[in-house]
Design goal:
elongated; mainly alpha
C-alpha cells in the first residue's frame, strides 16, 4: 500500500508525522476494537475505499493528537520579528 500526499517535501513530512501520531493515538485508545475492525476489513470487498477513508481519519486523529500533546508556543524570536514588522508598518503607514 502506498500513501498519497498532495504536496511534497515539508507538507509530505507533516502528513507522515500526523499519520504516525494518529496511529499511535488509535493504538493506545482502542487496541482491542482495532483488532476486531481489521478482521472485519479483511473480509470486505471495498477494502481500497475503506483504507482511503481510514487514512483520512488517521490524519485527522493525528492532527488532534499533536494539537493536544505537542502544542508548543511560537518561537520567541519569531514573535519579536512579527512585532517589529507590525510596528514598522504602523510607523510607515
Amino acid at each position: 500500500m502506498t500513501l498519497r500526499t498532495d504536496g511534497g517535501g515539508e507538507a509530505g513530512d507533516q502528513q507522515a508525522v500526523l499519520l504516525v501520531a494518529g496511529l499511535a493515538d488509535l493504538a493506545v485508545s482502542t487496541l482491542g476494537s482495532a483488532l476486531g475492525t481489521v478482521r472485519g476489513l479483511l473480509r470486505r470487498s471495498d477494502t481500497v475505499q475503506l483504507v482511503e477513508e481510514a487514512q483520512r481519519d488517521l490524519v485527522a486523529r493525528g492532527r488532534l493528537a499533536l494539537d493536544r500533546y505537542a502544542a508548543t508556543p511560537p518561537a520567541h524570536l519569531e514573535v519579536l520579528a512579527r512585532h517589529v514588522r507590525e510596528r514598522r508598518a504602523r510607523d510607515d503607514g
